[in-house]
Amino acid sequence: MGKAQEIAEILLDIGAVKVSMNPPFTWTSGIKSPVYCDNRKLISYPKQRQKIVDGFVDMLKAANFDPEYIGGTATAAIPWAAFLAYELKLPMIYIRPEKKEHGAGKQVEGDLPTGKRVLIVEDLISTGGSSVNAARAVQTECKGVVADIFAIVTWELEESKKQFTDAGLKLSTLTNFSSIIGLALERGVISKEEWEKILEFKTSPRKWNP
User: Fold this and answer.
1) Do 121 and 72 contact (CB within 8 A), yes or no?
2) pTM above threshold 0.90
3) Cβ(157)–Cβ(70) under 8 Å?
4) Do residues 45 and 13 lie in contact, with contact meaning Cβ atoms separated by under 8 Å?
5) How far apart are the C-alpha atoms of 102 and 66, rounded to whole Å?
6) 51: number of CA atoms within 13 Å, CB side?
7) Contact 126, 177 (CB under 8 A)
8) CA end-to-end span of the chain, whole Å?
9) What pLDDT score does 93 carry?
């Protein structure tokens, strides 16, 4: 079994993946989606959680990348950055969606010296906007070197692919939309009709009509 299939099975087993046509789910980007993947549930399952961390470590080895810091996007990816930083014995930071309007007015939290190599960890990639925003914050606020984003899941949307390409960022993920939805159909979690509607969504998410 491949890694993408294994992680997709974990997400389905713990009930992290939900499908609803009416009403649909609303993503942070405002997109109406028939699918929602709540990776936050994973942190409550120690064995499954460790498989995610091990998967990130394996991806690092395969990429031959040697980060000096692990950065998590607030809030959902902060636990994953913490788990991975602990596993690798590396320092950690986290990145807010925007600068604080009080205190020091920082967007990057932690102690990140200038010019350090940072791996940014996300839980899920939809449009890719939050990841690119986090990378830019590290690059501009701390002069950090960011080229790689790791995530548990990507919805494989064309919009996200363009965002990463334009920003000069490489995305690596443990599993993806195709693996999750394909397995959901195979298991009978979703019907053939629902599967077809979900594929319509993937083709044109901002125009999809539930």
Assistant:
1) yes
2) yes
3) no
4) no
5) 34
6) 17
7) no
8) 33
9) 98
Q: Which DSSP string do the residues of 82-131 spell out, in sequence order?
A: HHHHHHHT--EEEE-SS--SSTT--SEES---TT-BEEEEEEEESSSHHH
The residue assigned the tokens 């200038």 is 114
The CA distance from 96 to 11, in Å, is 26
Which amino acid, one-letter code, is at 151?
Answer: A
- 102: pLDDT confidence band, cut at 50, 70 and 90? confident
pLDDT digits (tens, 9 = 90+) for 177-202: 999 999 999 999 899 999 999 999 99
pLDDT at 204 over 90: yes
Q: Prior bond to 23 cis, omega within 30?
A: yes
Is there a contact between 166 and 128 (Cβ–Cβ < 8 Å)?
no
> What does the domain layout of the chain look like in residue ranges?
3-203
Tokens of 89: 């014995």
Name the DSSP letter for residue 137. H
CATH code: domain 3-203 is 3.40.50.2020
CA 49 to chain CA centroid, Å, is 14
Consecutive H or E run containing 4: helix 3-13
pLDDT tens-digit map of 35-54? 999 999 999 999 999 999 99
What pLDDT is attached to residue 33? 94
> 104: pLDDT confidence band, cut at 50, 70 and 90?
confident
The one-letter amino acid at 69: Y
